[in-house]
Amino acid sequence: MAQIQANGISITYDSFGSDKAPPLLLIMGLGAQMTRWRPEFCEQLAARGFRVIRFDNRDAGLSTHLIEAGVPDMAVVAAAMQKGEKPEVPYTLSDMAADATGLLDALGIARAHIVGASMGGMIAQLVAADHPEHTLSLTSIMSTTGNPALPRATPEAMAVLTNRPPHPSDEEAYLAHSLAAARVIGSPAYPVDEAVQRAQSLADVKRCYEPTGFARQIAAVTATGDRRAKLKTITAPTVVVHGAADPLVPVEGAHDTAENIPGAELVVIPGMGHDLPPALYDTLIDAIVRVTERSKTPA
Length: 299
Fold this sequence. Notes:
Elements: E1 2-6, E2 9-16, E3 23-27, H1 39-47, E4 51-55, H2 74-82, H3 93-106, E5 112-117, H4 119-130, E6 135-141, H5 155-162, H6 171-185, H7 194-207, H8 212-224, H9 228-231, E7 238-243, H10 252-260, E8 265-269, H11 281-293
Parallel strand pairs: 3-4, 3-5, 5-6, 6-7, 7-8
Antiparallel strand pairs: 1-2, 2-4
Helix pairs in contact: 2-8, 3-4, 6-7
């Protein structure tokens, strides 16, 4: 694990595979640390011939937390968006996309295959749209377009985002809440492994606990809004992957994403929810490899 300075912040990252292999950048989702890209997944990708780089987004993990920016008032942010005004937020998803390309620049990487999950998929889309010179291919996983007309999360899944978990000082209550949340948004056909989930949650909270970053990231998603116009400009080979049973980001978001990115491939996985079950690693990696092979520019 290492740190670099890019786009005015400190970014923590690590990598798997040969430095000489084609680079592939993994971008994680809302409030999640890079460790949610589990080592087994990264190692399997590296075994398919990539230099796999994962990193902590700003306000997550060991990268810079903008604590001094405070917690945005989401009612004010949402009201501004409804009026067609630009809300005042610490940053947007475009800034987070610039973090990703800043990391690549700092590592001396001209272009990479870009892979993002959930909010990370939104960021990856903006890397491909706004920084095509950095993008070899795009994989958008369990993400969406910001189209306000799309179906919303189920009430149970939305509660996972809005209900504050117990403080980690009550370790058992914190882990029980994390496990319950994972079950709500997880894959019906691939149930959460309780021991693995508890171990992951415990490791994550011991690595970093700063809950205000989650609120700033939500504000960034909200303030960025509808990205369909940008998606239409993407020229990189793209695959859109989504679970048919996703209760947090309904699968209609994937259809909308694929419809707005020229030439995008759509892969809908039965029984998959809003997580990355190990049983689906081969399916996910096959989709990623397939789109990288469509890239006509050597890495």
